[in-house]
Fold these 4 entries.
Entry 1:
Amino acid sequence: MNKDFRDPELAGGLVKAIRRDINDLGRPVRLMEVCGTHTVAISRSGIRNLLDGVVELRSGPGCPVCVTSQEDIDHMISLAYLPNTTVLTYGDMLRVPGATGTLEEARAAGGDVRVLYSALDGVRAAGAEPSRQFVFLAVGFETTAPGTALAVKEAARRGLDNFTLHPAHKTIPAALRALLAPARSQASTGSGGPPAIEGFILPGHVSAVIGRKAYDFLAADFGLPGVITGFEPVDILLAVRELVRSVMARAGGKRVVNLYPRVVREDGNARAQALTREVLEPCPSAWRGLGTIPDSGLTLREEWRAFNAVKRFAGAGGLQSSLHPALGGSRSRAAGISACRCGDVLRGLIAAPECPLFGRGCTPISPVGPCMVSSEGSCAAHYAHERRRHAR
Amino acid sequence: MCLAVPARIVALDGSHCVLDLAGNRLRANVSLVDAPQVGDWVIVHAGYVLERIDQQAATDSLALAREIAGLSSGPSPSLATGNDE
Ligand code: SF4
């Protein structure tokens, strides 16, 4: 079905249309995509190359692996070393560095860390081994949170007392607000600041859950356009063209448009929203590179607190990661991380190859920061698909 | 990790379904969608069906893209019967 959205002739025609518009505008435009899957698609499909010199696409905080805080990783690592305890995680999180190492290293050192595809698989694992504690590192955006909520309800239905979450879900609109608020105050005080993002390519599958309206604040509060779109080249080029048109339009005409109507509805998926709301509620959340953002995370509601690993393991040594003998934490790693510019990459302040470690100290084989670990990270996507271009 | 991909429902069984994902069979939870049907194209993510794909909207998006790209509309694409790849 998707092959029509990959048609090279159609994509080529759209690139020409965009180039014509930019020609009329008389200057290039800078946009930001806020979804790891878009980041990969833009790098892999060659879209960045096709739009070279006319539209610059910067990555935002849209890779859930990349924005997970070091503290969350460290907490999970410490749990992995507890006796009779298993840490459950999505595979991409294994190699993400905390301050004390990675979950993969914890596993190699004897910690019990298991990879799962679905949160429900975690409930099944807990059901199969009732005498063992299972802690699920619940990361991901609005797309993933309903699955976590379902898993908690399923664990409750089965009466399991050995399945808990480390809640680390994050929500996209709050992050966009946090990203834009300082830019706006800089603009109003006239003090230079980073080059401005002029519009957003919004994540298709987060939007399937939260709906188009959830982004109206972009236009209303910040005067910026946004376009929700899918992940094929034609989808992305349609969004770029719409955003360029919006930049060309005189002030006041900015809005949030849904160009992914085959999946995204105006109000999103009501069932998914209700399920998330039933089990989880907003909380402050620490984002790697962005700091703590109010109401940008999801944690378990009071009624479901029995499933909160942070509460269950608090005081049991679970939070004392730095004291664990197996977690000496390497100085060189800490030094590497401090030179890593993931934070700037995640805020769109620099493109991945502008980091001095890119391709030198930091590669997918030996990643320094999370943006190189996750295949959806901006650094990894640039490295995997666009290295030749950067070497030019 | 937030990968969500199109697939087609080939069988239903209570709260779960069997999906055809580019030739592979996969089980997924269907609690997030209203009245799923065998034959529906859906988006699947981390073990559950996230949303149904509206074929008519897909056709409309392609028509819009053709118009912007300055291509003649040509024969309309056969989305309903197409394979994902
Ligand atoms: S290239 Fe490596 S060190 Fe540099 S920002 Fe990306 S992940 Fe961090």
Note: Chain A touches chain B through 55 residues (CB under 8 Å).
Entry 2:
Amino acid sequence: MSDMKLDEGDIRDLFAATPVYEDAPAFEARVMRGLRLKLWLRQGFVALAGVVGGLYALAQFVRVPNWSFGEKVLSGSRMARVETDQTFRAGVEFFDVIGKNAVNLFYSSLHYLGIMQTPIFFWVSFSLCFACLALYYAYSQEETI
Amino acid sequence: MGQTGDKLDLTRQSDVDLVRLCLGGDKSAFAELVRRHGSLLRTHIRRMGAQGPDADDMAQEAFMSAYEHLSEFRFDGAFVGWLKRIASRRYLKKVRANQKYLLTDDMSAFEPEPAANEGEFRAHNLDAALNRLKPVERLCVTLNFSGDLSHQEIADELKLPLGTVKSHIKRAMDQLKTILNAKPAPVLETGT
């Protein structure tokens, strides 16, 4: 056995001694990079949630009975085709196609809009949001020191 | 007063001041805390039993968690102690999820590997000595000595009886003293 005997205080001192890591600067950079990424993702998620929430709220209020915007566009474009020269007609036809596609997309989305306005959709989405909040709260409580 | 020109010299600020700066939105103050305590935290997690890359991942997660919960730091103790508690909890969570046998009362569940050559073992090398303890003893003694947790707090965290924790720590201390007090074998000259 060695002449020097370690007691509890010496072992405590050994625990307090910290070795120096060669990659300490790299570790610091890694932590800060991870932190920035997490904050950026969180901000992105909040923004996305805001957009989705805004669209959802809008969907609860928008009512479109006998929608006729597409018809007006089409009739307007037909008039234009008759009254303008060839070059302008090509441009009008181009916008006509875009208009038709947009209107088709809008009409197809009306189907989903109808679903989004049903009570079952409201309660399902409300429950999901509530569950997300509850999980987030439970997780944050677990992390609390 | 820690000022260089109009820019604050963060290296001369105390942990408490750096935490206050962080709470004010200064990320560079947190970077200084990471620089200051990164090695300590990595060592603490390693000494509890985590392997190198896992330990670094957990240290990183602990820092990120600390940043998010910085407003919960009560300034009534050392920041590094608070940091170690976060890291300890994360490690224990992982242990409970993956290696439940470590926390059983069965002391024969783990048999440490015998050292190949006692002479090769470096006396006073705490990390090497910790490697020779049973995982649960290593965990208890590290939480007590490095994590500054009381016996009762360790019992609560590990969900073990207080008496069991005390016996783990006592046994670990006895072994550490034996290992660290052991005289290294002399290096023999070959004469070539």
Note: Chain B touches chain A at residues 27, 30-31, 34-35, 38-40, 42-43, 47, 56, 59-60, 63-65, 67-69, 72, 82, 85-86, 89, 123-124, 126, 142, 145-146, 173, 176-177, 180-183 (CB under 8 Å).
Entry 3:
Amino acid sequence: MGLFVILCRRVPLVNRRLRRLTGGLLSALIIISVYQNCSSGFSTQVVPGNSSLVGPTVSGNGHFIELNPYKASGNPSLPFSTDFTPYLTKAKINNLLATASGLSNGRLVIDRDGAFPGSIAKSSEDLVFSANDPKFQQVNTYYHIDKFLSELAQQGTGPTTAPLVRIDTHCKGADANNNAYFEPSTMTICLGSATVNGTVVWASNDADVSVHEFGHTINHSLSSTDILDSSLSLSTLDEGLSDVWAYLSNLNPHIASWYGQAMMQAMGKPTTEFRGLRDLTTIPSFPDYLYGLWHDDSIGISTVFFELHKNHNAPASNLRKLASRVLSDLQAGDTFAEVVRYMIQESTAAGIDSNLVQAAFTARGLYRKDSLTTLTVPATNGVIIIDNHYFDPGTFSQQGNCNGKLDVGETALVVINLANSATTSIGTVRAQLSEAPLSPGVSIQPGSDEATYLRFNASRRFVESLVPASVDTTTHRLNTYLAGFFVSATTAGTYTFNLRLTAFNSMDTTPVTKTVPVSITVGSVAPLKALCPGNGEESVWP
Amino acid sequence: MAMRAKLKKRFLLAFVIALALGFFILPRWFKNKSYQLTREPTSQTPTDFATDVGKSPPHGPPPQGKSPTSNPESSQATSQRDQAFAELQSQSSKPWHPVFDSRSGRLRTLEMGRLEIAANDASAGLVDIAQKFLGTHSAGLFGVASEGLRFDRIVESERSKVIFEQYVDGRRVLGATLALVFENGALVRIQSDLVTDAVGRPTGTVIPVEQALSWIEAHGIQQVKPIAEIKPELVYLPHDQQLIVAYAIYADRFNSAAMRIDRVRILVDALSPHIIKTSRMLFN
């Protein structure tokens, strides 16, 4: 869920706070403990097969909670410690495979439980449990996802066959703390927990989380994991469409309002006016709203679905068809521009007025064709060299001497800090760097010759267009990193590169491109440093 | 004051529990672990850069040799493609709109068209129909002989998508697929993420996977535990119309800054070991 985005941006704060409190020891031990638990959890998992389970099905009575405890109780401030058993609803639990060990409808199976391994609900028993019984979360998750799958099946959307997905409704696996996730290599879903004032709040009590995570499995089936991992935009779309599946099933535009609130409180974040992890009722303005983060940026697409449904009465079945068709159209490396084009192109076949789709994207600034004529390499300080990049603690090498220059022996992050002289902003620009001509003195690292400029504000250079580092260092650096290339130097001299730019164009298939020459000077060899001055690598980042 | 004392007591209790837990777990951890824990950083660091954005910083020495970073299609290939496209158009009941890759110029997508091949050959399954189509058109349109394409899967929804994976010299090209989309008895969309048969092959001796894993360990780059259930795979990676031979290794990676585990797929160059890309495999 969007949980992850919060983790990305907030957990380092938690980590720092913990370290400050305990001198680092406690956090280190907790980390080790978590990793140990997670690792052992994975080692015992069985990879589900490629085919769905089949067999005779039965129905039974069971408890579920409508959306989440806030909604079911009618109390948007319901304390997390409340026993919400009185707010549960009794209903038929359908499509249960009679022979399954646990709960299964052939597409999902809940037959293991990380926190409560000895407590597994079975189709042969009465499924009416209290909210405090671990089996309740298993039944609740099954109910909501089975309902979601039934809706897809009735409307002939989504994959009709797909690999079996195993769900742990009390997951203690990797990244389960304040989070939930889908793991495609083993086709498993982990619904984790957040702890608020000693109360463990399970993600499996929030239907938005369950359907969102299962929505990922739909996305990865209709497209593929490789395709959805191939660009920042497609990873973002994966999140956005998972929200769309959740919204169309649960009709809550404030995604994961219960579990999201728990996560916020668990991480000590202010929770006033919390409107879910993502608020689909907003109209974001591209490219200003971009953070370069999957979950946050997904609202550019997901809010269009909400608008079509809420304001234009587009049936949920048609919107599901639209999502399904767009997923099927995706190709490796696609960006938002292609996604917008696919959505407009596929809308008629999905029974939705393409003019409405186009208008919705126009309102968000995503139906556009940018020009690149106003982008230039500034004569001074147009090339930024980050020669001590430190991306992941204890993880990646530091190969620089922190002087802000590319020297012999270094591999540095090179950011061409283009300037936009126009009085309007420019949307996301893709860039490729190549040597012109090839030289043995420098090399662009394989896989690192492509970059993305998130946006260019009016009359600003790229770095000036980002969230300032003083406001959010992590986001600022992430976006800087996104626009960078890794270049290694072996011989001093001045080298010419070609920077090929491709503009955002969702209006047609004609590429808008421009190539600009860039000069990079390589200095003489200098001893590398482990860390730059300034308590780390701070000084080399713009 | 009483509350403060209570909190202090709770905190001390948590500390003692965590301490005990850590000492209990540490020996077990190190017993089976093949990768060493590294010291936590002392500075504020950006996290998840590599995995969030699908691009990793490089490690180790630069790869051997140089390759051009742009390799537009040759005029001969373009001519063949135009001829194949014209032939396809003539067979189709609705014209196709071609979309080209902005960088390489290769044909990437054929959309808006309609070819009634499924309806004309109702006795054959879609996979057979798709294979027959590729036998006729793949080399001309995409520069890839159909022998290099292996059926991967069929996705049935309101449309049927038949997906083929590309193999070069018997080795899978990661992410290189060709998909044929059928709807109401006709081929309606063709999507190619293939590399042409003329693509450059890497030369050199492939290192054993153990050596690739040892390299990661020796460089202290990542605290990773390879996942036993998923064997590392030797694959080709397309890169600027060149191929890189790499190991795809699934692993659990410990991220100390975010205090969590990331399941990742690490692509390691199998000729001159360095990490090409690390992809996060947990979709939140």
Note: Residues 17-71 of chain B have pLDDT under 50 and may be disordered.
Entry 4:
Amino acid sequence: MGIVNISHRDLMSVESPGRYVGGEPNQCIKQEVIDSIVNTGSCKEVRTAFCFPDVYEIGMSNLAMQILYNCLNSLDYVYCERAFAPWLDMCNLMREKNIPLYTLETKSALFDFDIVAFTLGYEMCYTNVLLMLDLGKIPLLSKDRTDKDPIVICGGPVTYNIEPMCDFFDAVMMGEGEESILEVAEVIKKYKDSGKQSRKEVLKALSKIEGVYIPSFYEAVFSDKEGEKTYYTEAYSRIKKEDGTVEEVPVTFKGVAPVQTGLRKLEPEAPDVITKRIIKDLDNVLYPTDPIVPNNGIVHDRAYLEIFRGCIRGCRFCQAGFIYRPVREKSPDTLCKQGIAIEHNTGYDELGILSLSSSDYTGLKELTDGLLDAFEGRHSSLSLPSLRIDNFALDLMEKVSSTRKSGLTFAPEAGTQRLRDVINKGITEEDIMASLKLAFTGGWNTVKLYFMLGLPTETMEDVEGIALLARKIEQLYFDTARELGIKARKPEITVSTSMYIPKPFTPFQWERQNCKEEFLKKQSYLRSLLKSKNIKYNWHDVESSLWEVVLARGDRRLNKVLLEGYQSGLTYDAWDDQFKFDTWMSLLEKNGLSWETYARNYDTDEVLPWDHISVGVRKDFLLSEKKKAYDETVTPNCRVKCSGCGATCFKVGECVASR
Amino acid sequence: MTMQKHQKQYVQRAVFTRKGALSYIGHLDLMRTFERAIRRAELPILYSQGYNPRPMMVFALPLGVGIHTEGDVVDVPMSVPVDPDEFISKVNAELPVDLKILSSISIPEPKDSLMSIVAAADYRIEANGIGTVASKILDFEEVITTKKSKGKIITVDIRDLILDVNTIDDDSIVLKVAAGSSKNLRPDVFMNALCSSVNYDKESALDATVTRTALYCNCEGKLVGIA
Ligand code: SF4
């Protein structure tokens, strides 16, 4: 039995020891289970370690973890605890003193659990999964685990293409987990009751659960023509010439490894396609109104209220816009009750409203009025991070003082209308200018603008468009001040650009990524154009985006690369100061792979590593959206007109409402 | 700006303990933990005025990470009188297990803030063999040690900050030191000094558990326990 007793001296030797001790209000303590574990070394309940592969401060800000922790602990035959990735100093200490990674509730070593579950929110956390398994003394590879080891599962948005990490998981849960995690727990309970006879059998039973993918039941097939190890593909870089015409210059991706040509089933009963799970009725699914309140300060120290899932918009670059379809709203009534309960049960003074594009919520006014009324005199406030700026939003922000400080946020994503049409970002320059005029008139002077570089069909003219837009906004500020006859303050305009990463299950899933030189050229061009003292330009590190595309669109060959990366000491890739691009590139090369293998443009008739997973949205719909993108044609949002993406198969939400 | 009217305060002066998990969070996090517990308890705590109102609480002396306490003091101002017993039971029901209020009294709004009156503190230090050597430090004219200040390592004489060393047994002492905003000696600085001046074992020093047991104010030249 592994109950860890970490000494005072050890805790005092690491940074922020509060991360490693638990003891927070609302953490789940099942005393009878704990007594049984302490006295007899075991218990009949299914013990689950819910793991977040990053530090406590980040993990505790994660809603998925709080939701599933609550769901699992609502079952009397399950006890779910939490574990986080220890920071490097603690990792060293644990290795040196042979202390296994433990959960915060009972300080039990991970290897002692029946289920070890990971929630994966971003690809760059993959090596931390290996770190946690390793410190938890669990064999890293699924095939090396025996009946004595926990069943290691995962879920979360990146698992729709889990292939690069699939060798490390016994089972993968596709889609929303509130219901399926309970079904998984039930199967594991039977397995435990029967004395854990056969791991193979339990995996078979798990594969019968809708939405559960057992990677070891499949094998990926790659082309291996002798003497033809190199696969060339061509993409086009669009350059605008002096005379205004756009020229397409071919970019050749060399050194591309053999491509995946199929997926073979090794287990006849395994499903051909695994379809994600969704929650049909969000009003009646468990939502944590008494989440754990960390003692140790966390990244976003507030409670969350999720108001709907999905997004009606369908921006073509946005993975979230497709994988969470269809849109399903919670009723303002349920939300008000839950919001009030959360504020009361946590003592937080801020409730964060959470969704994609919150302005699309049909009951927004009713909800915010209701909550602000209830919070009156209690010094509590709301934060609404993804509001479209209009009169209603400005009015709301006026009432909610805390958002005011952070200024206004716009995400035009692209600098020209042409490119915004390509990506289906339904926002025009007139929209932006009209909103900003309202805001400037209302006294705002801080604007943050978000863009992406490297979007499909982008030319230098589009990049220039970003600078032009920022300058127009600067000018608008002074013009508005003059019109109003007031002395202008200094406007504070921030332009941020990120690197576009083509993601699975989007219309751009086949697109190439820009190479490092292209990204750098675009960044420095923009830098040269944004010299005004009122405009600040923030740019991101290019290399981490180049690695992210590999993980996002990767195949099974990357398991080995990730394992070797971890074994050579790479962890915390999401942290800029820990990320080692060159090491990753040489590991790819060592394994006969390259950045080009995954960053090139994919043929539309190629087998994609994630083809056996379905999010509801059909591949032919994505393809038609890709074609429309090249025609610069926009697609109306789900509420204006259903475009028949395939998500109607779930028979709920917006797809049904719009009929 | 409109003039903010000063609101009448009904203060609960509470003595609290912390141990276990709660001893490993910083002072700011400790304050937040208290704030949220009082908010959950729905007590009529007063808020600061201004742009970003916060519950008004005054802690006598920040508690360093890793230090337990058996006698720290906090002033919690309320908008209406609150019965101390009700205050204790409601807040304790909301505080995490390792943080508890021991006692509380109703006091009128203090003229001087609780923070400004702290003059000394007692720490119980439990460490291997500490009782056999620690009191020798009182015989020294000066105790020179190093401490970090604004990122630099500086040398200081801490002798006049050490007020008393009381030996309880071979492995524990109670140390009385100057504390507060003007003169303050942290127990870890004392432990360093102990190692360099009386050759106390560095390894044992790292294993020491430190518990703050009392806070004092200066009352006409004499140290008097707060609350
Ligand atoms: S089926 Fe229609 S309404 Fe439903 S998500 Fe797809 S486009 Fe939107």
Note: The helical segments of chain B are 27-40, 84-94, 114-117, 130-133, 187-197, 202-206.
